[in-house]
Amino acid sequence: YFIFTERQERRVVKPSIIRTFGAIPKLLMLKSVRRLMLLILATTFFKWMFADALILRLLGAGLHRTTLVNVETLTAPVYLTVCLFSMRWIVPGQMMKLYFWFSLFAGLVMTAGFCTYVDFEKHHNMTRTRIFYFGFFVLRLMEISGSFSYGYVNSVTPESIGSTFITFMMSWCNACSSIPSTIGLSITQNPYLDFHTLFIMAISLHVVMTLFFKGECHYLETASKREFNPDYSDIDKDGEPEIGMVLSGLSSPQRHL
Predict the structure, then answer these.
(1) CA distance 137 to 141
(2) What CA–CA distance (Å, rounded) separates 238 from 253?
(3) Which backbone phi and psi does 255 adopt, to 5 degrees?
(4) Residue 219: phi, psi to the nearest 5?
(5) Which tens digits make up the pLDDT trace of 170-202?
(6) Rama region for 123: left / alpha / beta (φ>0; ψ in -120 to 50; rest)
(7) What percent of the chain is helix, strand and coil (3-state, nearest 5)?
(8) Is 53 helix (H, G, I), strand (E, B) or coil?
(9) What tens digit of pLDDT does each residue of 234-243 get?
């Protein structure tokens, strides 16, 4: 009788900054990673483009800074409650579906903020604006699409480059919100561009882009964790994955009699 045994030799790879940055190009070569990055960009770009500009416009129209601070303080329990309930929904198999629906809900939140600004700009009713802004801020806290995207990233993170993958994706998520906000602030400073038209266009484009990428949410929801792992190359003829040595530090399997 012949007994076949399989042995994998592990060699210790010393961590280095070169090795860390070398993992990023390999991540970008993965189709699933690129599709996830594109989805996050498309569904957050217009959502955050005029978020800060809207607050500055409200302050410029006469809304007191203390009102903003008081609303944030009063809605703190709402934020904690939403966070607690969202933990029940962050489970594999439904995170990207909920991400899609909450991204659509973000269009409603943007509309509420825009209506609050337009009403205050025209009527300058401070009491009504405080009520409207309170409602808008509560809706904004309930828009937790970001929590589902972070949860999904954690669920598909490869063990071999866990910290690198999470840091890279979190940096991408932050860039997809901060860079559009900076662009929006620059655009609104142009006196020849109407802020109302720009904001309505941003709401419309956000809803359209979210609906357009609905299929991507379904694809990512059904994608396997292996598709996000750069250590796995193409599937071989026998259907077994060939494990690379660049990131995991594993030598190729050796078969012995």
Answers:
(1) 6
(2) 15
(3) -105, 135
(4) -60, -45
(5) 999 999 999 999 999 999 888 889 999 999 999
(6) alpha
(7) 70, 5, 25
(8) helix
(9) 443 344 443 3
